User: Fold these one by one.
Assistant:
Number 1:
Amino acid sequence: MIVRRYLTVFSRKNEKYIKEIELDFFNLKEMQNLFQIDQENPMYDCYEVNEKGAAYFKDKYGIDLDLKKYFYYVECESIN
């Protein structure tokens, strides 16, 4: 199974969907550690990004997240 990982962005003002940001390089172990998820969990759920996560995405992906204006969620879907 191939899994596509991405950030979903929503407005804090009205919760309107804004866009998706592809996560081309996804290190599962780092993400499990970041979100304090058990190593047995493949992270198929949706995870809200907090300030610690925003720093991670800035450092690893060069993505600036504006947590005051937007909600960000790490999500995934299966692609065949």
Number 2:
Amino acid sequence: MLSAIVSKGDKQAKEAEQQAKQTRAEIDALQSQPSDEHMQKQMREKAEAFLALPNRSYREVRNAFNDWVKTTGARVIFMSTEPLRLSWTCSDLPTDFGGVN
């Protein structure tokens, strides 16, 4: 009877350890995501660089910028270019994520 209790305890301990590892991995993944401030800065820099290109009207240049935007999981909406104002919406959020002025 004692060995059954020990065996059950070992099994529960292994399951708890596995759950703890999974939780640690999820926390690490969340902590590695960029902050809102970092994302705003990156969006602004990339958008300004794109707008400064003399050939930004070329399809391949626009496609390269659009491909980068897709990697962020966002959709950029240019509200104006003078001064630069843009907004973005994240695909995993139901509402506007934020904007950069």
Number 3:
Amino acid sequence: MSGGGDGRPRQLPLHLALSPSYRREDFVVGASNGAAWTMLERWPDWPHHVALLIGGEGTGKSHLASLWAEKAHAPIVRASDLADGDPVALIRGGTLVVEDCDREPLDEAVLFHLVNAVVSAGGFLLLTARVPASEWTISTRDLASRLRAIPPTVIGEPEDALLQRVLSKLFRDRQLSVDSAVVAYLVRRMERSFQAALRVVDALDREGLARRRPITRPMAAEVLVQEGLGDLVGEAGEDDEGDGAG
């Protein structure tokens, strides 16, 4: 990124790969994900032995699936890898998570076997996907019928209040003091996902360190553009004024 324009030397921040944290304390519950959180917390008191967790990219479904897997001692596999494993061995422990079931290739025969084995053994199977089973490309009619009979639990896009809480927590975790007005600005303008929140906070942390300055709204505007995570049309004039917190 360009310099801060004040003649101060820039530090060169380290660019470390972002690894999502799937700890329980890192999951923030709100209206958009409350039903999914409640469903996973109620296990093993589920109405069905197979659960469908549906959510778009960055909504936190992998985080939730990981928390349930830890609680239920369940292995996690990707649907595209099912053909490489032994379905009987996968479900031997009685619980299993299969991620990204709406992505091809999907070995329908193995998945159908898993569903039947789980139901027969009284175990539990958690399937995740971006869209409901009714929108998956499945040619095995019995499998399609069984999956579509299971009510999906859907995670929506994070609402403003939830996204603001997530951003605030991410800043606190990095011991960054950021004005609430800056956080509110980010919420209005950034891509609505938890992955985007991680990227924005990481980029702002690095930029603040490089400039040796606090994180401000103009800095946030620059980072949103640089990272391709926001739309600032109509606010350019407002954001170009001074380097105040706004």
Number 4:
Amino acid sequence: MFKDRNKIRTLIVDDDPETAVCIERLLRKRFRAVVDKAGDVSQAWARLDSGRYDVIILDYQLPDGNGLDILRQIPPRQGHVIIVTGHGDEAVASEAFRLCACGYVVKDDALSESLFEAVACALGL
């Protein structure tokens, strides 16, 4: 879908390694993305300080905070942010969009398709 020079830089922040690998596979296959991963808020900041990402996938519930904590502090030019959660609700979704998240995806059986659609929409594809 994309030429090598146009690979999408992506950061996945999720404390569940299985979910992170599933998301990574989806992004690599569907978008030929270059993927970095972080398992908590502190690792996420280390990655974010080291470079810019086109897309940032943030789990809501993390061991040392939550995705909204990160979203509140990410500069808009850092990348398109999509919150992914199995523990959110309408209030979390509303706050995510108020903080300029590009998407909100629930971890359920439709995760792969929902995330694909959210990333494609965020990137204007």
